[in-house]
C-alpha cells in the first residue's frame, strides 16, 4: 500500500518535533549555565563584595543546577534559596533546585578575599 503525501507529511512533522526536543535537551550541557561575577567596590566585614549572576543560555529551563563551590566562604550572608552549599562534595545548589529559565538570572553577592569559580557541574534539563 502506497503512503499518501499527507500521511508522509504528518510522519515527517512528528519525527521533526520529537528530534528537535531531544536535540534541545542534548544541547544543554552544564556549560550552557554561565556564571559571571564582578567586584562591586563595596566591602563587608573587611572583605571585598562580589556580585554573581547565574545565567542559563539554553532555550530549555534547567533545574537542580549544581556548581562547584569547594572551599566557598563568605563574610556576607547569602540567601540559601539562591546558593546553598550541599553537605558533601564541595557542591552548591543554585536557586533552591528550582528551574533557571533563559533570561531569568539568579543573582547573589558574597564577600571574601578572593573570587570563587562556581563552575557549573550538572543540571536537569526540561524542554
TrEMBL record:
<keyword id="KW-0732">Signal</keyword>
<feature type="signal peptide">
    <location>
        <begin position="1"/>
        <end position="25"/>
    </location>
</feature>
<dbReference type="Pfam" id="PF24068">
    <property type="entry name" value="TPD1_C"/>
</dbReference>
<dbReference type="GO" id="GO:0001709">
    <property type="term" value="P:cell fate determination"/>
</dbReference>
<dbReference type="InterPro" id="IPR040361">
    <property type="entry name" value="TPD1"/>
</dbReference>
<protein>
    <recommendedName>
        <fullName>Expansin-like EG45 domain-containing protein</fullName>
    </recommendedName>
</protein>
Amino acid at each position: 500500500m502506497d503512503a499518501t503525501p499527507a500521511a508522509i507529511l504528518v510522519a515527517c512533522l512528528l519525527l521533526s518535533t520529537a528530534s528537535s526536543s531531544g536535540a534541545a535537551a542534548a544541547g544543554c550541557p552544564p556549560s550552557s549555565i554561565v556564571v559571571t561575577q564582578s567586584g562591586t567596590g563595596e566591602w563587608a566585614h573587611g572583605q571585598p563584595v562580589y556580585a554573581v549572576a547565574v545565567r542559563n543560555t539554553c532555550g530549555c529551563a534547567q533545574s537542580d543546577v549544581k556548581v562547584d563551590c569547594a572551599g566557598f566562604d563568605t563574610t556576607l550572608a547569602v540567601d540559601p534559596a539562591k546558593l546553598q552549599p550541599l553537605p558533601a562534595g564541595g557542591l552548591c545548589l543554585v536557586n533552591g533546585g528550582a528551574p533557571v529559565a533563559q533570561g531569568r538570572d539568579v543573582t547573589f553577592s558574597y564577600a571574601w578575599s578572593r573570587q570563587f569559580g562556581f563552575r557549573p557541574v550538572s543540571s536537569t534539563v526540561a524542554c
